[in-house]
Write a structure and sequence with these properties.
With 161 residues, the chain is α/β, with parallel strands linked by helices. Helix content is 27%, strand content 19%. The chain has one domain (4-158): Rossmann fold (3-Layer(aba) Sandwich), CATH 3.40.50.360.
Length: 161
Amino acid sequence: MSKTLVAYFSATGTTKRAASVFAKAADADLFEIVPEVPYKRADLNWMDENSRTTKEMKDKSSRPAIASDCKVEDMSCYDTIIIGFPIWWYVAPTIINTFLEQYDLSGKKIVLFATSGMSGMGETVNGLKDSAPGAVFAGGKRVTARISEAEVRAWLNTLDI
């Protein structure tokens, strides 16, 4: 029997709302990726060259730490992992790389969704593939926090989830 996990990182709550819809639509477990050091409003100021996110996103080797008690207990029981995050600089925040690199995801189907008001997915999938060797990336979609369960179900059905 196939089991699905929705894992998400949300800096402002927008992605958290969308992740809840995805979990319900996919009848999936829900897991929050919690940074060891929470992001403050000033950290998220993309117009500030000295903000935390600007520095992290300029350094492609940046791997922000995840809280030590924030681990999926048994990743082996999941066949499909749906990962949600806000779009930062047209890609996933590097904490998503940190998350992927913590597990052996060989053979697992990875589906991505990103919350953004305007920015597209850009090179998001390519930026994550090296962090999950052997995983099968099945697609990605930009969504808003207002996405409906019916919309999510329809999209996931096109991916055989």
